[in-house]
Structure formats: structure tokens, C-alpha cells
Specification:
The chain has ten helices and 13 strands. It is α+β, with helices and mostly antiparallel strands and about 475 residues long. The strands form two sheets. Strands 1, 2, 3, 5, 6, 7, 9 and 10 form an eight-stranded mixed β-sheet that branches. Strands 4, 8, 11, 12 and 13 form a five-stranded antiparallel β-sheet that branches. A hairpin with a 4-residue loop joins strand 1 and strand 2. Helix 2 runs parallel beside helix 4 and helix 4 packs antiparallel against helix 10. The two termini are about 70 Å apart. Keywords: Cell membrane, Chloride, Chloride channel, Disulfide bond, Glycoprotein, Ion channel, Ion transport, Ligand-gated ion channel, Membrane, Postsynaptic cell membrane, Receptor, Signal, Synapse, Transmembrane, Transmembrane helix, Transport.
Length: about 475
Amino acid sequence: MSIHVFLIPSVLCSEDLRQNVSATLDNLLQFYDSNLRPGYGGSPTIIKTDIYIRSMGPISEVEMTYSMDCYFRQTWLDERLAFNSPNLSTLAVHYSLLEKIWTPDTVIYNGLKSHAHTITTPNKFLRICQDGTIYYSMRLTIKTSCPMALQYFPLDYQICPLVIGSDAYTDRETVYEWKQANASSITIDPGVKLSQFNLIGHPHTNYTLQWPSKGSLKVLEVKFQFRRNMGYFLLQVYVPCSLVVVLSFVSFWINREATADRVGLGITTVLTLTTMFMENKMDLPKTSTSTALDWFFIMCFTYIIATMLEFAAVHYFTKIGSGEVDVTWAEDEEEEEEKSFKQQNERVKVEYLSGVKNRFSKREPRESGSPGCFSSKKARHRKHRFTQPHRTLIQHRIHNVMQKSEEHGCLLCLRCLRGDSKYRKLLTMRGSPDGINSVSRIDKVSRIVFPLTFTILNVLYWHTCSSQKFEMPI
């Protein structure tokens, strides 16, 4: 019985409250004209605004836009909706009431493609206070334009504005203000993270915008300040490009006779750098303005092309022959050796014939053990020795290479890894007489000049880009 005693008053109170709210709304809207703003003909209506940002992104350099998901909140005073009820401090009403009351014609001046969320129902919230203050909130996805300065890309800062104001009312009719003048009216959710940017600030202000056809308008502006993350570009662009340039410097340690190796290395590095450049340019707009990344690629291209031009100079001015053997010189040497052998053969032949003639003139018996026979054998041996096929210059070089290769392979590898200067000097001295594996002085100088200047330019590049001061509004 006691349970019914407590339930009946509760039910009666709920029913009375419902009837009270319905009667209050009917009385408020009975003579209400939604076509007229509050205080029509008097002072301007003040609309206070604040934004709660749930997420941001993506930010597109190609389209020069950015997007964000937020709760857009507006508060204004409409004395026609004021009510006096001891049981009600605020009225939380359905969003359908928005069609029956006056609402600000707020627009985003630099907006491109924004929409209100309607799943599963329109994400709108409306409350009316006793003094007629209306609190209106809705969830929006806003996509706005963001004029970007890409001169220092990817070491850049970007400032993306959001401009809010009235579509038709001038500053004599509506005035837009931030809800909290001395504090931030822009609240960022702590979980907001961007893939390529860090949000470092969001100062907001209000000012008067002069419109030629409408007059002066009071608008609100918030400037989102972004700083680009360098992690992706360091790992995917700068470090690989620098390594490709360093790889092109390896050609200075390849002997000038290895024409195919050095040219192939240069072409490979050029093609690799070109591919990387084209892939990174796809994410940027096609503008005539060069970026910091473009200048870095230009510097890398310059060094790679310079290595190929350096080898062309070495090949043209210091290298003899076709790269393997100096054929002309080898033929001259071979002709000289053949001429020398012919002269020796002629002398042997004359000596042999004169000896035979002397023996026949003396008519000495030819015995197997006689000195004459021994002389004859000795002469034939000398003749055979000088008339046997001589080795050419190329065969002589092959023989030298075979002799040099007799050293134990592990010992060769160990000395090569240790970089023994005496061993390298010995191999150079052994190879120099043949004209093989020679090193140009231009290559020796380039081994120092190219890496040193590339390092210096990198230091200047990073110092210049990182020391730029960007004007950030307060």
C-alpha cells in the first residue's frame, strides 16, 4: 500500500510537468514571428560562438584544403522566448522547434563542402533558458580552403583560416562574438592527431569585413597553425636521396678503364633519383613555385650529373686507349719485337753458314763427338730458340696477371679489407707499367672535393630552411 502512495504523486508530478512544458511552448509560439530577428528595429543581436573540434584532417596540398569534424555552438538572446516557471529553469526541446523560431544565418565564408551529420537522426541540440537565451549546437564536418605557401615544403608552417559570419545581416543587425573573450573559445579534443602535421596553435579573433554589396559585416576568424612532421620525408626522401648521391661517388674509386661500370652506375643513380622525384611531386600542386624539396633534388641531380661529367673528362683527357689495352701501342711493340727477332735470326743464320763453310773447306771428318758437331748442334739450338713463336704483349700481360693471382685468396681479401696502403701501392706499381688499373689525378681530387662540398651544401640547406621565421598571429 505504501508503494502506491509514493508512485501516485510521482506520476501526477510528471504529468503536471509535461502539461506545464507544453503550455509554456504554446504560449511562447502563439504570437512568435520567425521571420524577424530578436530586437528587430533596435540594437543588433549578439551571437556568441564556440567550437569543439573532435577530429581534423585530411589536409591536402594538391587541393589546398583541410577538413574537421566539430560541434558548432551558438548562443543568442531572444526575449520573445522568455518564460517564468518555478519548476523549469531550461527547456530541452526537440530540434524540430528550430523551424518555428528565428535562427542566425551563419555561413562559413571560406567553406567549400560542409555538411551536418544526420545519422541516425540530425545531430542537433536546442535549449531555451528562462530569460530567453537560446543555446544551439550541431555537429558539422567542415571542409574549407587553405591557401598554402609551399616555398619551404616540407620544412614549412601552414596557417589555415576559418571565417564565420552572417550571410545577409550587417553589423547593425547581428554581431558575432566569441563566447569567451579572454579565453579560448576553440576547444581541441585531446585525442586529435594528424599524420603529417602538428597543431601548434589556434588563435581566434573578430573583425569587420567590408562587403561591396552588403556593407560591413562582423565576422569571426580562427587561424589553425600547423607545423609539418619531418619524420616521413627524412626516411622516404632525404636519406635515400643522399645515399644515392653517395653511391654515385663510388665511381671515383672505380678505375678509369672500367668504362661500362662507371657509366652504368651513373645512369642507375640518375634513374633512381628521377623516380623518387616524380613520386614525391605527385602529392603537390602543379605550380611554378619551387619548393625546398625541389631545390634538394636539384642539388642531388647536379652532383650525380657532375660525377658523370667528371668521368667524361677523365676518359677524354687522361685515359689512353679503349679501356682494356692500348691496341696501337701493343701493335707497335709487337712489330718492334718481331723486327728484333728477325735481326737475331739473320745473325744466327750467317754464323751457322760461315761455320759450315769453314768445316767443308778444311774437310774435317764429321764425328758424333767432334767439336764441329757440337758447334752445329749448338747453332741449331740457338736457331730454334730464336725462331720459336714469341709471346705477344697481351700474352705477357696475362702472364703477369696470373703471377699476381698466385697469392693466397684469403690473404688478398684480408689486405683489401684492412686497406693496407703499402699493399695498394705495391699493386699500383705492379700494374702501372702495363697501363692497367691506373688512377687519374682528377679522380683523386674528386674523392675529396665532391663529398666535402655536398656535406657543406647540406649543412647550409638545413640551416637556411630551419632558421626561417614565420609570422604567426597572436
